[in-house]
C-alpha cells in the first residue's frame, strides 16, 4: 500500500480494494468521506462558540461468497489500512450468510460524465464573516418589540467530498457545500414566555435570505406565540404550514422504503400501483436539481439516479430500493441506496417535493373556515404496520378565515393512509431542504387538547 502520510484519495481507494481482493475477498467497495466545517454561535450580541472540524475517513465493505463485513477508520496511514483490510476479511469469513448481499448490478451503475449539479460554492467564509451573519440575525430578532431574551444566533459553512470505488470498476466522486444562518429568541408577556426561531440552509451562501430577514421572522414568530391557549378536544380542519408540511411526507418515505417492505412493516405494503394520494397529486424526485440540498449524481452504491414520480396522479409507482432490498423483492435497485462509512446500506430520496396546488395559504384558511393552522410539530409517533399516527403541535386557531389566537399543548392524530387521501395542497411550495411540500389542508383531524 502507498505509504504517503496524505495519500491521494483515488489511489488510496484503489490500494485498499486491491489489497482486499488479494487478502481473499471476492469483491469489495471502498469510500472516503472528507469534511471541513466552521460554525459560529453568538448570544446577546457576543461571541459564544466557535467550532471547527476537519476529517477524512475511510470505509471498506468486503464480500466473501454471500458473507459481508464493513469496517471504517479515520487513520489513513498505510499500517492502519493494512490492518483494516485484514480485519474486514477476517470478519467476513465469520459472518453469517446473507443471500441478498453483493455489489450493485454493473449495468445499473452510473457512467459517463456526471452532470454539473452546481453543489460547490468556492466562496468560503472566514470566522469573521460568519460571526457578522450570526450577529445580524440575532440583532434583528432581538429588535422585534416583545422579544425579551435570546437563545442565540448562528451561522455555519461546511464542505463535504464523497468518493466511491468498487472492485467491479465503478469510481465516482462529488463534493458540495452547505451554508446556514439561524436565530432563536424568547418573547414574554405577563410572566409567560414563548420561543420563536427561524433558520435556512443552502448550497451557496448567496442563496440564503438576508440574516436580518431571518432574524426578524424569528422574533415575530416568538411574539405571535404570546397568549397561546389550549383547545378542547375536537375534530376540525387542520392546515400544516409549508415550513413543516414535509413532515407529513416522512411516513410515506418510510413506508415505501425497500427494507421496510421486505420486513413487512409498512402500512403501504401491497399498495404498489394503487392510489395513496388524491387524484392529481404528484410526489416528485429530482436528483439533478442544481444546488439542491438532496442532489447527487449517483447513489451510495454507485447506481445511477433519475428523475421520477414516486407518486403519479395519486398512484404509488415504486419502492425505494437499494441492491439488497431489491434482490429480496426480485426487483432491481432504484438508485436509492444510502450509507455511511460502516454498516449496510439503507435508502433515502434525492430532492423530493409534493407538487403544489393552486390555493394560497390564505385561501386554504378561508376555504377551511374554522380550524387549526399548525406551525410547529414535535414528538411524532407512527405505527409502521397500520399507519396510526400522532404528533404534538402548536400553531393558531382560526375562525371565519381569520386568526383568532395562538394554540399550544395539543396533539393531532389519525390514520395516515386516511389523512393522506384527504390532502389539499397549497400553492406556496418553497425549496427549503431535501424534502419539501406546500402548505397542506386536511378537512377533518382529531385534535386532543385540554
From TrEMBL:
InterPro entries for the chain: Metalloprtase-TldD/E_C (IPR045569), Metalloprtase-TldD/E_cen_dom (IPR045570), Metalloprtase-TldD/E_N (IPR002510), PmbA (IPR047657), TldD/PmbA_N (IPR035068), TldD/PmbA_sf (IPR036059)
Domain Metalloprotease TldD/E C-terminal: 234-449
Domain Metalloprotease TldD/E N-terminal: 29-92
SUPFAM superfamilies, per the entry: Putative modulator of DNA gyrase, PmbA/TldD
Domain Metalloprotease TldD/E central: start-end pairs: 122-226
The family this protein is said to belong to: Belongs to the peptidase U62 family.
Name of the featured protein: Metallopeptidase TldD-related protein
Organism: Peiella sedimenti
Source lineage: Bacteria, Pseudomonadati, Pseudomonadota, Alphaproteobacteria, Caulobacterales
Amino acid at each position: 500500500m502507498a505509504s504517503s502520510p496524505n495519500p491521494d484519495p483515488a489511489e488510496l481507494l484503489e490500494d485498499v480494494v486491491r489489497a482486499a481482493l488479494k487478502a481473499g475477498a471476492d469483491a469489495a467497495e471502498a469510500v472516503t468521506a472528507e469534511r471541513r466545517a466552521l460554525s459560529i454561535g453568538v448570544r446577546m450580541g457576543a461571541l459564544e462558540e466557535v467550532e471547527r472540524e476537519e476529517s477524512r475517513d475511510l470505509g471498506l465493505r468486503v464480500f466473501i461468497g454471500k458473507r459481508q463485513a464493513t469496517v471504517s477508520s479515520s487513520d489513513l496511514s498505510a499500517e492502519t489500512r493494512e490492518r483494516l483490510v485484514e480485519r474486514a476479511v477476517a470478519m467476513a469469513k465469520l459472518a453469517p450468510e446473507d443471500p441478498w448481499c453483493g455489489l450493485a448490478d454493473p449495468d445499473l451503475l452510473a457512467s459517463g460524465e456526471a452532470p454539473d449539479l452546481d453543489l460547490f460554492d468556492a466562496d468560503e467564509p472566514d470566522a469573521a464573516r460568519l460571526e457578522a451573519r450570526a450577529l445580524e440575525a440575532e440583532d434583528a430578532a432581538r429588535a422585534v418589540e416583545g422579544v425579551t431574551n435570546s437563545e442565540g444566533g448562528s451561522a455555519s459553512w461546511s464542505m463535504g467530498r464523497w468518493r466511491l470505488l468498487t472492485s467491479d470498476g465503478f469510481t465516482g466522486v462529488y463534493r458540495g457545500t452547505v451554508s446556514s444562518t439561524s436565530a432563536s429568541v424568547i418573547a414574554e408577556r405577563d410572566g409567560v414566555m414563548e420561543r420563536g426561531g427561524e433558520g435556512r440552509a443552502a448550497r451557496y451562501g448567496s442563496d440564503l435570505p438576508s440574516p436580518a430577514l431571518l432574524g426578524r421572522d424569528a422574533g415575530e414568530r416568538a411574539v405571535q406565540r404570546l397568549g397561546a391557549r389550549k383547545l378542547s378536544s375536537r375534530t376540525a380542519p387542520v392546515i400544516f404550514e409549508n415550513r413543516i408540511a414535509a413532515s407529513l411526507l416522512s411516513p410515506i418515505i418510510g413506508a415505501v422504503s425497500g427494507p421496510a417492505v421486505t420486513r413487512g412493516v409498512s402500512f403501504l405494503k401491497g399498495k404498489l400501483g394503487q392510489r395513496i394520494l388524491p387524484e392529481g397529486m404528484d410526489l416528485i424526485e429530482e436528483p439533478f436539481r442544481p444546488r439542491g440540498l438532496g442532489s447527487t449524481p449517483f447513489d451510495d452504491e454507485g447506481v445511477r439516479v433519475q428523475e421520477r414520480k414516486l407518486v403519479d396522479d395519486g398512484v404509488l409507482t415504486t419502492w425505494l430500493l437499494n441492491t439488497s432490498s431489491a434482490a429480496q423483492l426480485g426487483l432491481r435497485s432504484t438508485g436509492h441506496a444510502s450509507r455511511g462509512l460502516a454498516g449496510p446500506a439503507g435508502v433515502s430520496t434525492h430532492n423530493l417535493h409534493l407538487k403544489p396546488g393552486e390555493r394560497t395559504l390564505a385561501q386554504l384558511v378561508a376555504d377551511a373556515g374554522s380550524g387549526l393552522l399548525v406551525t410547529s410539530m414535535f414528538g411524532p409517533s407512527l405505527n409502521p404496520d397500520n399507519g396510526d399516527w400522532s404528533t404534538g403541535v402548536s400553531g393558531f386557531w382560526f375562525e371565519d378565515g381569520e386568526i383568532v389566537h395562538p394554540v399550544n399543548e395539543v396533539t393531532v392524530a389519525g390514520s395516515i393512509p386516511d389523512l393522506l387521501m384527504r390532502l389539499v395542497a397549497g400553492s406556496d411550495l418553497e425549496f427549503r431542504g431535501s424534502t419539501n411540500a406546500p402548505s397542506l389542508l386536511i378537512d377533518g383531524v382529531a385534535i386532543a387538547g385540554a
